[in-house]
From TrEMBL:
Pfam families: HATPase_c, HisKA, PAS_3, PAS_4
Organism: Alicyclobacillus fastidiosus
Catalytic activity: ATP + protein L-histidine = ADP + protein N-phospho-L-histidine
Alphabetized InterPro entries for the sequence: HATPase_C_sf, HATPase_dom, His_kinase_dom, HisK_dim/P_dom, HisK_dim/P_sf, PAC, PAS, PAS-assoc_C
Residue intervals of the PAC domain: 89-139, 214-266
SMART domains: HATPase_c (SM00387), HisKA (SM00388), PAC (SM00086), PAS (SM00091)
E.C. designation(s): 2.7.13.3
Keyword terms of this UniProt record: ATP-binding, Kinase, Nucleotide-binding, Phosphoprotein, Transferase, Two-component regulatory system
UniProt key word tRNA processing: no
Name by which UniProt lists this protein: histidine kinase
Keyword NAD: no
Ranges where the Histidine kinase domain occurs: 279-486
């Protein structure tokens, strides 16, 4: 090791020390100007030439201040004079490039003395990229600040070592705080007493579950006595792997949103009440119409005892349907599980057709029921499926005010049952077809617009569907499909 050190000393002494400094001067990564006491340039390195785009000859003998922006001349000159007094100085100025544009620079003046002659070394660093990055950062900050203002969002930062909270202006407005930095205890005093545990638990979980972002919603009692609803997000930032120092986050005033949601809920309740009232009227009117038609027949003198006995079950059926509908309204107030069982859809449709036969006669409509088999089992709530069929038949009768024919067919298609209702009424225009099934939309003068909505809901609950095909002046075909109860179906074949 001693031999190597001696060798290095010999090599160093063999070089001119000025050459070493000259080499470092030329290779220095920043632009360097050597200025005399009057600010004239006596020497500059290659980086100075590449930075400003001039040849070295242009610099030599000229004042460096001539290359600075006019607005920066006074600042540049005063800083240079301070450096001549023996103090290292820094200043940021714009300097002229050979192509005519200005370059943002940071100039460090380092005083030097050679043979009692004072010089100043001006080290110039190009700050263009840094300034652009800073400008983008400021723009991002401005956009973030503006976005927070629009969204009514404040930000905060808790120093977990001191329990001091730094609050933004919006944060102070939400909580009614007067200072930008306050103790955490003072912030917690603003939290509604019933919600205090929500806040403290959230803070504790955020500390324990770094770096998980936690959120909480709670109430704040403003200094003016009003209750504010606040939604907060927060997470702990780690400055080292061993210790967490700060909990940062945002706070949004959602008071208006909460009030709006409450108003909407009240509005929804009123709408539901109106819908239920209309639904009750719609679903009870069908069996009442049947009863009206049967009573009209019973009042005539043409009925014998046998016919009377035939119509009496239909009267009870209609009364049972009214009872069921009112019961359904009660179920909505206190939901109960639907009771389903295996039923023969052929029988269900046949009973509905018989039930509405009297009403069909009143409309001068011939009701034709054409089943293709004797037994097609489905798993269903029988009364609800009858309700769907009743709605469809009733609509068909009303679509033929001058009379006509309604054909009903039931058939099996693979693992499903298809029930088709085909009338030769006036049909439905295409524009109206697109809105069928929407709540309160109806093509009838006295309709509530809920019949198809309720029917679609029942079919959906049963895994079924409805399709409507119609042509103006030719009639309408309504097809409903329901899943076949395969266990029974297979045993039949």
């Amino acid at each position: 090791m001693q031999v190597s050190q001696d060798r290095n000393d010999q090599l160093l002494s063999s070089f001119d020390i000025q050459q070493v400094y000259a080499s470092a001067f030329e290779r220095y990564p920043d632009a360097v100007f050597i200025l005399d006491m009057h600010g004239h340039c006596r020497q500059c390195n290659k980086k100075a030439c590449s930075l400003l785009g001039f040849d070295a000859d242009v610099y030599l003998g000229s004042r460096m201040s001539d290359l600075t922006h006019d607005a920066d001349n006074a600042l540049f000159s005063s800083t240079f004079q301070n450096a001549l007094a023996g103090k290292t100085q820094e200043v940021e100025v714009s300097m002229l490039h050979q192509e005519g544009h200005m370059i943002d620079t940071q100039v460090t003046f380092v005083p030097a003395s050679v043979s009692n002659v004072e010089y100043v070394n001006g080290v110039v660093r190009d700050m263009t990229d840094e300034r652009k990055a800073q400008a983008k950062f400021r723009q991002s900050e401005d956009r973030l600040k503006r976005s927070q203002e629009i969204a009514q969002i404040g930000d905060w930062e808790i120093d977990l070592d001191t329990n001091m909270v730094a609050c933004s202006e919006k944060m102070r407005q939400i909580y009614g705080l007067s200072e930008h930095t306050v103790p955490l205890e003072r912030v917690l005093q603003r939290v509604h007493p019933d919600d205090l545990s929500i806040v403290t638990d959230s803070i504790q979980r955020a500390i324990e579950e770094v770096p998980t972002v936690r959120n909480a919603q709670y109430r704040v009692v403003h200094v003016d006595g009003t209750i504010r609803h606040v939604h907060v997000y927060g997470a702990v930032t780690q400055h080292s792997a061993a210790k967490s120092h700060k909990l940062i986050g945002t706070a949004q005033d959602i008071t208006q949103r909460i009030h709006t949601e409450e108003a909407l809920r009240k509005s929804d309740k009123l709408a539901i009440v109106g819908q239920l009232a209309a639904g009750i009227a719609h679903e009870i009117r069908n069996p009442l119409t049947v009863l009206k038609g049967l009573l009209h027949l019973l009042e005539s003198d043409t009925l014998d005892r046998h016919q009377y006995a035939q119509y009496r079950p239909l009267i009870w059926e209609s009364l049972n349907q009214i009872e069921f509908t009112t019961g359904e309204m009660l179920v909505l107030a206190k939901p109960q599980p639907k009771v389903c069982s295996t039923q023969n859809v052929i029988r269900i449709v046949q009973e509905v057709a018989a039930l509405l036969h009297a009403e069909a006669l009143l409309h001068n409509v011939q009701l034709l029921y054409m089943p293709t088999t004797d037994d097609l089992p489905i798993q269903c709530n029988e009364i609800q499926i009858k309700q769907v069929c009743t709605n469809i038949i009733k609509n068909a009768l009303e679509a033929m005010p001058t009379g006509g024919t309604l054909k009903i067919s039931v058939q099996r298609q693979d693992n499903r049952v298809s029930i088709a209702f085909v009338d030769n009424g006036h049909g439905i225009p295409r524009k109206r077809m697109m809105k069928l099934g929407e709540p309160f939309y109806t093509t009838k003068e006295k309709g509530s617009g809920l019949g198809l909505t309720i029917s679609n809901k029942i079919l959906s609950d049963h895994g079924g569907s409805m399709r409507i095909d119609s042509e103006v002046k030719k009639g309408t075909k309504v097809t409903i499909e329901l899943p076949l109860h395969l266990a029974n179906a297979h045993s039949e074949h």
